[in-house]
Amino acid sequence: MKDEIASVIPHEPEEGVGETFVEKIGLEKEECLGRLRKFFESQPLAVLATQNGTAPYLSLVAFASNERLTYILFSTTRATRKYSNLMANPEVSLLIDNRKNKIEDFRDAMAVTALGRVEPVEDFELSIMKKIYLMKHPYLEDFLHSPTTAFLKIRIEKYIVVTRFQHVVEVSV
Amino acid sequence: MGGQTTRRWLIPIEETWGNTGKACGGKASVLGALQRKGLTVPAGVCICTATYETYLDRTGLRGRILLELSRKPFEEMRWEELWDISEKIKHMFIRTPFPGEMEKELEEGLASYFGGKAVAVRSSAPGEDSAKTSFAGVHASYVNIHGARAILRHLRLVWASLWSDAALLYRKEMGLDILSSTMAVLVQEMIEGRVSGVAFGKNPDNESEAIIEAVYGLNRGLVDGTVEPDRWILSRQTGGIKTYTPAKREKAIFAGKEGTELKALPEVFQKNPPLTHAEVLEIFKLARRTEKLLGSPQDIEWTFRGSALYILQARSITTFLQEDRDEKRRWHLSLRRSFENLKGLRRAIEEKYVPAMQAEARELEREKIERLLDSALAGEIERRAEIYRKWYDIYWEEFIPFAHGARLFGKVYNETVNPEDPYEFADLLSGTEMLSLERNRKLEEISEKLRKSTELIKVIKERIQAEEIFPEKENVDDTGIGHEGKTEPADTKGIELEEKPEIKSEQKAVNELEEEIDLFISRYGGSYSESPGTKKGIYRLLLEIALYPPIPVSAESKSNNRIQHLKEKFLTGFEGKNKQCAAELLDLGRASYRLRDDDNIHLGKIEAELKRAFFEGRKRIIERGSGEVRLPEDQVFYTREFAAELIKTLRDPSYNPEWKKLLPKPKPLREKVKPRQLLGNPSGRGVAEGVARVILKETDIFDLKAGEILVCDAIDPNMTFIVPLCSAIVERRGGMLIHGAIIAREYRIPCVTGVPDATELIKNGDYLAVDGYLGIITVLKRRE
């Protein structure tokens, strides 16, 4: 199946993070994290999965991560479903990908699924984390500073990295 | 100084010409081209579009502007909303410093060009003065600016003017892409001209003529219309003067210490025309030469320093021939009223219109229309409709433009104080007493009496019940006319009480309360005062208010200290004569803010008088009919079409009115999407949750329960007395300075305005969260 699809996609190498990643990925964890870091910087939005008790609930969020990729930061207003889901169950999953919604994606796209748990941002780290977040999303300054907005961090347990449609590796952090 | 970087951001005027339009804009490029051909152009540099783009990207401002503009489809925004947005965006530019090294590099670059010399900082946006569009006067320019730091401060203001209300409207009108617009800025040595003016190489109205206009001092006064110019019309062929029209020559604009000042003109100048014959001819030649160089007739701006003639600007006249478009631009520009103009408006409103309006309302109130014959009543309705129409027009033509006083003040306040919150100025303005607040305090006073007396509460409850069993005559919706005529209207004080063994003093208290309520309705009821159901509604509201502890009125609780502090903060930004001017502007702003609220109540009173006649007519029709006439409910009834039908029926007893035909056709029921989160403009900070009370018709407001969230199309000051009861306000109409927002601010209630279709999407009884910081309404639980 994989090969069949690969064979129908015309192969014209394009510049893209995913592709470089596929070409050059090694087995070294540090190297892999380094590539993930670049990849995350290139993507402003991620899909966040929360649970409402019985079923998953997906939302698009503006995210940023710290240098070591141990945390992923995002913000949401408190009157949202995702926020009330999180309050009930902090276990989440996040999808970061660079698909273009074209058939080439089967060859070129990379998708990273992050698993983790939402934790409150502690006072001592708040200002540095806000800085990290706003460095990537400077336009969200007003949003982030609204008293109705919750600023949250996901403590990441592991990343599941998918390339070339079915090539999957895991990285724990 | 990194020469490389400087070259990237700053381009000397002599290096700009024909092909630099994209990087330097039309204005700079044309001047560069003219300078190359030997014309005298003030020395300067162009801060090119790349500078603007880099600033936008590196500060995140591009994203913030995008978020601000995408709150609502652009086409659906009212002018007031655009004004708010542009003020917010301008505020972002003022508050966002240049990133990293950029400021230092620009500062050093500019300092090396100009040192401390006075300069003009002018917009030069690509496409600004193309053959198709003319942004003349739409974007900002500042003259007489000293030093690199000040230039950089004004640079951001000029950039911000790309997003001014007029610029946004104009782009919308012209179908230009708003988000891709960009701007270059021209910084030139300031030429403190003795005489300045404009010249049209070709008269748009007569091809054989050229026009020259001149004023003493700087030509800013001429361009913005505050100074009347002397005018010469010349033969395009010979340069001979065909006509000369001198101006009154009383004032002129001169350079002040910083910026410009409008000053009285010394007598010597008043007597003499600003230009000699020879000078007129020299300007004419300049215009013709520019035309030759640029290939089409030009509209130029020029100035004489000593005997040297400088060209300040040239743009193709084809622009001016796009008349209807130009007309629209003029209209957008007219939205900006000058200080002088607003002062005149204020005098007219305060001294003429408001007293006349009140007098007319009182006169109408005195008339005993119930004694008129049917045909006379028909005439009276017509007369009152005309009176209302007259005041309504005056309201639109005089009162609404005066609302710009508050906006003008806000603009100056923000540019001077640079506050964190761009609407801080509203707090300073609201330090004034508004009629609606006085009314709300009165309502609170009456409720306080109820709180103290369970007996009075009981009486009020009985009164409401009695009215529910035997409703007021006018209060019948379309239940036919069967039992009409049996009950007397509300004027039946104390009937129920007489049957009860009450102590005299209590009876007195009840009577007093009654009188107070009547007085209240007549004085503050505005457009509600003559509507059926108002009294019962007020009873209910009073009870509701009395159930809860008194609500602090912020106009009083708001410490005078804060207002004093804001006032000082504002005034310390000015010196000497300007301080006086600033104080006057504050006074004007306050008058504008207050009047904008009060005037509606005054107009409401006239409207109520029209309604009174109207309801009297309705009553007659009901009395006349034999039961088969089913009148539509008040709200629908009170429209132009029904009015005409009513008048006809009153005049001609044999006429058979067809109310049904006039009823709007019911819309077919289609399943609608259900709202979860709606976006509007944050207009009152805070957050609240509560049950929605959606106002679809006038009398709905009396059903409001304490703690509910008021959802309405547009609050008018006549209904703001229920605001202290609400926990939040959601309004379809947008704007930060509209009544809903003003009153919400007074009471510190969260408020979101400009929510499209709010009253259609949100249902009575939905449980909402209102986020007044971000402008979000969430339907947490839908009414089943």
Description of the molecule:
The complex is a heterodimer of chains A (173) and B (784). Chain A has 173 residues and is an alpha+beta fold. In chain A, 35% of the residues lie in helices and 36% in strands. Chain A contains seven helices and seven strands. A six-stranded antiparallel barrel of chain A has the order 1-2-3-6-5-4, surrounded by four helices. By secondary structure, chain B is an alpha+beta fold. An eight-stranded mixed beta sheet of chain B has the order 14-21-20-16-17-18-19-15, covered by helices on one side. A six-stranded antiparallel beta sheet of chain B has the order 9-8-7-6-12-13. Chain B has a five-stranded antiparallel beta sheet with strand order 1-2-5-3-4. Chain B is elongated and about 95 Å long. Mean pLDDT of chain B is 81; it is low at 319-326, 328-335 and 471-498. Chains A and B meet through α7 of A and α4 and β21 of B.
Give me a quick take on this structure.
With about 170 residues, chain A is of the alpha+beta class. Chain A is built from seven helices and seven strands.
Topology:
The complex is a heterodimer of chains A (173) and B (784).
Chain A: H1 2-8, H2 17-24, H3 29-42, E1 45-51, E2 56-65, E3 71-77, H4 81-88, E4 91-97, H5 105-108, E5 111-120, H6 123-136, H7 141-145, E6 149-163, E7 167-172
Antiparallel strand pairs in A: 1-2, 1-4, 2-3, 3-6, 4-5, 5-6, 6-7
Chain B: H1 3-9, E1 10-12, H2 21-36, E2 44-47, H3 49-59, H4 61-69, H5 79-95, H6 102-114, E3 118-124, E4 141-146, H7 148-160, H8 165-174, E5 184-189, E6 195-200, E7 209-216, H9 220-223, E8 230-235, E9 241-245, E10 251-255, E11 260-264, H10 267-271, H11 277-294, E12 298-305, E13 308-316, H12 318-321, H13 323-334, H14 339-366, H15 374-402, H16 404-417, H17 424-429, H18 435-452, H19 454-469, H20 495-498, H21 504-524, H22 534-546, H23 554-557, H24 560-571, H25 576-624, H26 634-637, H27 640-651, H28 659-662, E14 677-679, E15 681-684, E16 687-694, E17 709-712, E18 728-731, H29 739-747, E19 751-753, H30 758-761, E20 767-771, E21 776-781
Parallel strand pairs in B: 16-17, 17-18, 18-19
Antiparallel strand pairs in B: 1-2, 2-5, 3-4, 3-5, 6-7, 6-12, 7-8, 8-9, 10-11, 12-13, 14-21, 15-19, 16-20, 20-21
